[in-house]
Amino acid sequence: MSAPLGLAEAARAxxxxxxxxxxxxxxxxxxxxxxQPTINAILLPLWDKAAVAAKAAEAEIAASGPRSPLHGVPVxxxxxxxxxxxxxxCHSKILLENRRAEDAAAVAKLRAAGxxxxxxxxxxxxxIGGPAFDLPFPPARNPWNTAHxxxxxxxxxxxxxxxxxxxxxxxxxTGGSVRHPASHCGIVGLKPTYGLVSRRGVFxxxxxxxxxxxxxxxxxxxxxxxxxxxGHDAGDPGSADHPAEDFSRLLGAGLRGLRVGFVRxxxxxxxxxxxEMGAAxxxxxxxxxxxxxxxxxxxxxxxxxxxxxNRTILLSEAGAIHEPWLRERPGDYARITRRRLLPSAFVSxxxxxxxxxxxxxxxxxxxxxxxxxxxxxTASSMETACRIDDPEAVERTYPRQARxxxxxxxxxxxxxxxxxSSAGLPMAIQLVGRYFGDAAxxxxxxxxxxxVPWQKVAS
Length: 459
Fold this sequence. Notes:
Distance between the termini: 14 Å
Strand order of the largest sheet: 1-3-2-4-6-5-10-11-9-7-8
Low-confidence stretches: none
Shape: globular
Helix content: 25-40%
């Protein structure tokens, strides 16, 4: 097998007629055939349909050129995202027959851009469980070390992209579920500004916290994928009326003069990071400064405050969705999913109202910080990936992060690779931007990528 190509590399090769979509798909399938038995990233393979689409893309490109950088490029979909004609199982027994008639809004945009969909990818059950061994599908594993957790809930998306099985994938992020696997698998994972990407056709976890985001091996790929899926959608009441834009336009901006707010108390005091992870984040702050950025400490409300608000809102909104099944089919959930959902019964209406009130105060606190800085720098995960067969360690890993605050506030946030630990597992940093400053955030991320290049494919 040749070295796997990312989205931008593949797009350039296809446009130059150095690569055909059929050849690209065949290379992806060869990697998937070799790696799927140990990584379990794919839940529903769709190679035959993808092959038909690749041949059609090849013919169209030969006749009139590519429609977009996505034309003829395979994109993986987390299996809570609808693909017309296919089941969306949410990795659950409950929805094994849940065949969908229409594409999710983001998928429809990708299809119009010429993307190909060779697989639906593993997820934590209903995007809230964990690695479960009591479901019809095995959990995805970390391609850097298959004994370890890939992060979640977009576990298959992270594993498929990091291993080179697929160039890019979509995930979803309600409490960090794009950025968690990105941090553990050593890839780029973006939670866009709330409302920038439609959630229509995505099974909800918590409607006022849910985001759809790109998972890629490079910042350029992330910008290209976001450009394809962003845009207003009247079918999503949370969709922002924000004009389409080219999110790659600021990738060359550089770091000189960038004002970086260093939120060190998140990983030094609120949830102390492992020594290697903490050292990597401090090293990142020094890199930004050495590249000409102005780095200053910023203090936000504690992680505990953000986490409490997120938990109350998430449980209340998820409970409203799952209450009938929890009553009628509790045994069809994985144990870990059931354990996470059952506390929703104890969240009262006043609890939810108070959490939404406190949420507005937390948003104001973060907005105040952005009056003085352009981006925030902090941790993504507080530790590297734990073993997947250690349930206590798995349970501990979910709260040990700094991602939840930006689901609460809706600011764009990206997890970026920051080298490998002494055990050979990925480490990460997180950058956070202003509302609808996703392009500027990706510009800062690209500056980090140039300053500290990372290994693009797990080994």
